[in-house]
Design goal:
Blueprint: E1 8-10, E2 13-18, E3 23-28, E4 33-37, H1 41-52, E5 56-60, H2 66-73, E6 78-80, E7 94-97, H3 102-115, E8 118-119, E9 144-149, H4 160-167, E10 171-174, E11 189-192, H5 204-216, E12 220-225, H6 235-244, E13 249-252, H7 257-264, E14 278-282, H8 296-300, E15 305-309, H9 315-324, E16 332-337, E17 345-350, H10 354-360, E18 367-371
Helix pairs in contact: 5-6
The protein binds S-adenosyl-L-homocysteine.
Residues 152-153, 177, 225-228, 231-233, 256-258, 261, 309-310, 336-340, 365-368 line the site of S-adenosyl-L-homocysteine.
């Protein structure tokens, strides 16, 4: 079987180009076993795009960027933490060499061909924009930062302005919850600063430094974030860091998961006759924690729907506190995880039992819990 393919995977198909024959073809990846060799940012774009297309993705790499590690921890992809081995290509429907090492990628492609497994053509890695910074000194003033809200994860939910900014960027500094599929096919240098809950993370000061340093070198930097940059996204701090360094900075708002997550499970955050408002809060620390600034008793009495972000581990404490503060234990509740992604799932219960349901179903972050009458709306 010939080696085919360009490095582009879109929607639910892999777009392949036969280099010798000179035509493009598509390869439906939904449900297919796809091996990605490599764990760097080049592999990340491929992994994310394949994941969006519903492929069963296995990654082989001794090391990975945080966002691939995060996908593996969430069970979205399988990651073999070791070097590529010849036998790895066997048993897959498609092989994607994306190690960034041209020799290794070529070897993987050759071994896939030997094994009769379809394989994309390795990226040459010769992207003009991602190389060095030598030429940017000619135009030092064009350096700037754009904070782009990428929406809850599906590449279809980034805004038109956000996508344009990403496509014209020299450097994209990305998060694990950003729509990683939009990175596929970019010429830009990609920097993964994903923060994994209770795992690997890049300190905010370091993220700020990366943004400012690249922009100061004359690069157009996009800070691609999940949801909206200003909803628990630390976008305000990044704007401040840029302003303090004299770097021009713009913000492209995004579709926040606080609204889109419930919507994708059929739950409107407001509904005429049911609620006149909704309150979005972070549950990253439980009620009573010295770091908590929320008045949970007041929230229980607010008469609005509550939308809880970063509240999987703390859900038992939060729901107990709400009920103890007088919220009817029969108040409907719903938890939506991995909203917009092929792994999206949701559970519904009442506020007294939702935490137990979430634990029983093994639901992990990222997830959103809605508490209020709207959570009982039929899908
Ligand atoms: N700026 C983001 C929120 C960042 S805080 C936004 O506006 O959406 C991270 C939290 O957002 C997660 O812990 C989870 O509660 C929520 N979240 C983000 N993406 C999500 C998704 N696809 N599905 C479910 N929850 C999500």
């Amino acid at each position: 079987m010939p080696t085919i393919g360009a490095h582009s995977v879109n929607e639910r198909t892999a777009a392949l180009m036969a280099r010798d024959a000179g035509f493009r073809a598509t390869f439906p990846v939904s449900g297919r076993r796809v091996l990605v060799v490599g764990g760097g940012t080049a592999a990340l774009a491929q992994v994310a795009s394949l994941r969006d297309g519903g492929a069963r993705v296995t990654v082989v790499a001794a090391h990975s960027v945080p966002s691939i590690e995060d996908l593996a921890e969430r069970g979205v992809v399988t990651w073999h933490t070791r070097a590529y081995d010849r036998g790895d290509v066997v048993g897959h429907d498609l092989v994607v060499p994306a190690s960034g090492d041209p020799l290794l990628d070529a070897r993987v492609a050759a071994e896939a061909a030997d094994a009769g497994t379809w394989c994309t053509v390795p990226d040459s890695g010769s992207s003009p924009r991602s190389e060095g910074g030598e030429d940017v000194g000619n135009c030092p003033n064009r350096g700037r930062v754009v904070l782009v809200g990428g929406g809850p994860g599906d590449p279809g939910l980034i805004t038109v302005a956000g996508l344009e900014a990403v496509r014209s960027a020299d450097v994209v500094v990305t998060d694990r919850l950003a729509p990683l599929g939009v990175l596929d096919g970019l010429d830009a240098e990609v920097v993964d600063v994903g923060k994994i809950p209770r795992g690997r993370s890049t300190p905010q000061e370091e993220i700020n430094r990366v943004l400012v340093t690249h922009a100061a070198a004359g690069k157009r930097v996009v800070r691609l974030k999940g949801g909206d940059p200003f909803v628990f996204g630390r976008g305000g701090e990044e704007v401040e860091a840029c302003v303090a360094a004299g770097i021009p900075v713009d913000v492209v708002p995004g579709v926040t998961s606080a609204i889109a997550g419930p919507a994708l499970a059929g739950i409107p955050v407001t509904h005429r006759g049911l609620s006149q408002g909704f309150t979005v809060v972070s549950g990253h620390v439980p009620p009573g924690d010295p770091r908590s600034t929320l008045d949970w008793d007041a929230l229980a009495r607010s008469g609005t729907n509550l939308v809880l972000l970063m509240a999987v581990a703390t859900l038992p404490a939060i729901t107990e506190t709400l009920v103890a503060a007088g919220l009817d234990p029969a108040t409907p509740a719903a938890t939506i995880a991995d909203a917009t992604l092929p792994t999206q799932r949701s559970v519904r219960a009442d506020v007294a039992t939702i935490a137990a349901r979430v634990a029983a179903e093994g639901i992990g972050a990222p997830a959103i819990t809605v508490v209020g009458d709207v959570a009982a709306r039929p899908v």
